Amino acid sequence: MFSKIIIVVDKEVDVQNVEEVLFYVGSNVDPKRDVTIVEGPVDVLDHAAPLMGAGSKMGIDATTKWAEEGYQREWPQELQMSDEVIALVDEKWKKYGGFEKHTQWTQRSLFNRKEN
């Protein structure tokens, strides 16, 4: 099996959590700088490839950027919410209704929840 798309994230990101990975793709990726496309072998069963067994692959760098990589701006710190703020947001979402999934999302490590 050949991988067509590889996404690289920082070690703190839970790679098993698709929502979290996609959050960092949306937050940390500049398409011109962080996406690389190369041609090479692909699975012969890949119907999207222009030729049987030959196509393209994509690499996405969704990591924090460093000055040593040529990044010239200051990288922002991640949002940190206290347990009280998370509880308040959860309560409001319950009041609005239909957003049960959001409760799980606000409690993920994505927001660097402060430990008590």
Automatic annotation (TrEMBL):
Occurrences of domain 3-octaprenyl-4-hydroxybenzoate carboxy-lyase-like C-terminal (ranges): 1-62
GO BP annotations listed: ubiquinone biosynthetic process
Domain of life (superkingdom): Eukaryota
GO MF terms, alphabetically ordered: 4-hydroxy-3-polyprenylbenzoate decarboxylase activity
Annotated coiled-coil segments of the chain: none
Parts of the chain that traverse the membrane: none
GO cellular component annotations of the record: cytosol
Protein name (Swiss-Prot/TrEMBL): Uncharacterized protein aq_1612
